[in-house]
């Protein structure tokens, strides 16, 4: 799956495969972000969904 590491007050979760990113998506579905980071996450989620459905092979730069 992934690796959770903590250094002081900062924690990070690292994954090595695209498939493991589903853990992060599920986490933010259960516990949504409430700050401006929510908007950044929405852009990231859009990119994730494009790649998960392999639509990125059909995208031109104008569509992104």
Mean pLDDT: 88
Number of domains: 1
Overall number of strands: 2
Helix content: 40-55%
Q: Oligomerization state of this entry?
A: single chain
The H/E string reads EEHH
Low-confidence stretches: none
- Which strands sit side by side, in order, in the main sheet? 1-2
Radius of gyration: 14 Å
For this entry, give a set of tags.
two-stranded antiparallel ribbon, globular, 64 residues, single chain, 2 strands
Task: Outline the structure in words.
This protein has 64 residues and is of the alpha+beta class. The protein has one domain. Helices cover 41% and strands 19% of the residues. It has helices at residues 21-30, 37-52; strands at residues 2-7, 10-15. It has a two-stranded antiparallel ribbon. The chain is globular. It starts with a strand and ends in a 12-residue tail after the last helix. The model has no long low-confidence stretch (mean pLDDT 88).
What's the short version?
By secondary structure, the protein is of the alpha+beta class. The chain has helices at 21-30, 37-52; strands at residues 2-7, 10-15. The radius of gyration is 14 Å and the shape is globular.
Can you lay out the helices and strands and say which pair or pack?
Layout: E1 2-7, E2 10-15, H1 21-30, H2 37-52
Antiparallel strand pairs: 1-2
């Amino acid at each position: 799956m992934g690796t959770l590491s903590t250094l002081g007050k900062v924690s990070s979760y690292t994954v090595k495969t695209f498939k493991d990113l589903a853990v992060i998506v599920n986490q933010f579905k259960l516990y949504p972000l409430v700050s401006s980071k929510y908007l950044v996450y929405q852009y990231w989620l859009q990119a994730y969904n494009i790649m998960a459905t392999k639509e990125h092979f059909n995208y031109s730069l104008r569509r992104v």
